[in-house]
Amino acid sequence: MNSYDIVIVGGGPAGLTASIYAVRANMKTLVLDKLAPGGQIINTNEIANYTGFGVINGAELAIKMFEHSQEAGAEFEYKTVLAIRDEGAVKKVICEEEGTVYEARAVIIATGTRPRRLGVPGEEAHAGAGISWCAVCDGAQYRGKDVVVIGGGNSAVEESIYLAGIVNKLTVVTMFDLTADPSACDKLRAMPNVTVYPYQDILEFLGTDKLEGVRFKSTKEDAVERTVSCDGVFEYIGLEPTAGFCADLGILDRTGCIVTDAAMCTSRPGIFAAGDIIVKGLRQVATACGDGAIAANSASKYVESLRG
Q1: What's this model's pTM, rounded to 2 decimal places?
Q2: Which residue, among 247, 145, 156, has the nearest Cα to 196 in the 3D structure?
């Protein structure tokens, strides 16, 4: 039987940090992820706000985190988790591949979220290299350049205000109108280098070797089509939680994120969560790592309590 003290579902910054702390607490630890270790950061060209690294490529940071986890002694398997079964003192993690089942005293869910995408031509080709989903992470590399933000909600407007302060020209394109806090919308519209195009459909991202612009079309009767040249694009059309596999556990909020307390405990004893998948205000590499450390500490104490 594949038995562990702690099984961690998700190999991003939260999960990998949790694995290091768990192993150092003398827990037999396994990390499961269906993709390459690193989570969303492998799609980020530059990370400039993770303490101690200055500016680092996201994939490079992911490798360093994975190597640290491996050096600590955590095991890693490429597996797609289908469900977690809570059987009290034993949790069963059921995977798609060969119907593999892992048993654990505690489980940490750190599967994160994925940015909702538009699914238009050119998006996949420029994802992570021209198209980003995090202005705090990637905005500085577009200082003095021209940028397009897609979206009109709170995140889009807040990040647009930040970007407008460092870029040359900012164009905001949104399917409806700006729907964020009115005062924030007014502040954004008043900035001299900002142009807002409401009620638009994105048609295509332009450029072969690098991103060169965005083509979009009005949803109004005039159906005017425009092309805006730019050096970078930031998409803010929502996030998709990736915890659907544990919906039966009753630990999700209405948006699909996992509800935890400050110790990263869910309402199910022995099941913890960390990183972007939990209900929280700031989703960054640094906060994910902090969550992972806390979750591993809580999970280790829980396992110790079962040992008596």
Answers
A1: 0.77
A2: 156
**DSSP code per residue over the chain:** -EEEEEEEE--SHHHHHHHHHHHHTT--EEEEESS-TTGGGGG-S-B--STTSSSB-HHHHHHHHHHHHHHHT-EEEE--EEEEEEETTEEEEEESGGG-EEEEEEEEE---EEE-----TTHHHHBTTTEES-HHHHGGGGTTSEEEEE--SHHHHHHHHHHHTTSSEEEEE-SSS--S-HHHHHHHHHSTTEEEE-SEEEEEEE-SSS--EEEEEESSTT--EEEEE-SEEEE-S-EEE--GGGGGGT-B-TTSPBP--TT-B-SSTTEEE-GGGBS-S---HHHHHHHHHHHHHHHHHHHHHHH-
Tally of CB atoms within 10 A around 208: 9
Q: What are phi and psi of 301, to 5 degrees?
A: -65, -35
Q: What's the distance, Cα to Cα, between the start and end of the chain in Å? A: 23
Dump pLDDT digits (tens) for 123-175. 999 998 999 988 877 899 999 999 999 999 888 998 899 999 999 999 999 99
Integer Cα distance of 306 and 154 in angstroms: 44
Which residue do the tokens 């996201």 mark? 58
Q: Which residues contact 165 (CB under 8 A, 6 or more apart)?
A: none
Let me know how long the chain is: 308
C-alpha span between 127 and 143 (Å, rounded): 19
d(CA 33, CA 14): 12
Give the integer Cα–Cα distance in Å for 83 and 130: 35
The alpha carbon of residue 258 and the mean position of all alpha carbons in its chain are separated, in whole angstroms, by 14
pLDDT tens for 209-227 read 999 999 999 999 889 999 9
Cβ contact 159:188 at 8 Å: no
Residue 93, number of CB atoms within 10 A of its CB = 26
Sign of the alpha-carbon torsion through 117, 118, 120, 121: negative
